[in-house]
Amino acid sequence: MDYIDPHIHMVSRITDDYATLARMGCVAVSEPAFWAGYDRGSVDGFRDYFRQLTEVEPKRAAAYGIQLFCWLCINAKEAEDVSLSRDVLAMIPEFLDHPNVLGIGEIGLNKNTKNESIVFLEHLDLAVRYNQSILIHTPHLEDKFQGTRMILDMLCDDSRIDRSRVLVDHVEEHTIAEVLDRGFWAGMTLYPVSKCTPERAADMIEVYGVERLMANSAGDWGPSKPTAVPDLIFELRRRGHRESLIRKLVYENPIEFFSQSDHFQFAPRDGNHVTI
Q: Which residue ranges run through the membrane (predicted)?
């Protein structure tokens, strides 16, 4: 089955991972800007990183028949430095016209601090002013519930935000309902040691269905598995779910959400150009 991974960090993956994804049926990936494993010290460091996302990685992916789209931001871990964050925010519009950029992300909170919230709100304003979709990072483990509520409240307090163009990622059993109830898209991240397993994701699907829901691997520098989405496909098949439901989750839903960006020019294997 063809699928799209809507959140994976291929800059941190080896070339063999592209070959493996292609063999497993991956036809497109979406790569949000994220933490590089260390705090970058200048706006020029981010400019070089954005060039990697917009110029280098799409070519690496294309060599294996995979389309790569990306998102731009300064991530929550580095948002404590408000001055640097504002320099990066001022630079981001240089890249927003690039043909593989889908929007602003992954923005959100890490430790739920005041500075993180300031930079998050300024990212939202940038997204609105430039008519960009938004991809949200919710905090890890003990900070997740409070951080998710804070993020949702800030989003809902801004009447300019189109909730159908916001993907709130890394949902778990205690956060998924509120994300969906407030009208946003939700992303389930399949990690081997945190967030959720394919089995837990399948449980959530059986409770909430697949409307406005996606699944991703968020493969990065740490413990992660770039083929986690196929693992979920296999788990849903094992439980007897219809192929049409699985296809909606891992293929049709990403296309529906990403197509809200003018830059999502997606060409399926059959060669017919997709626009929704």
A: none
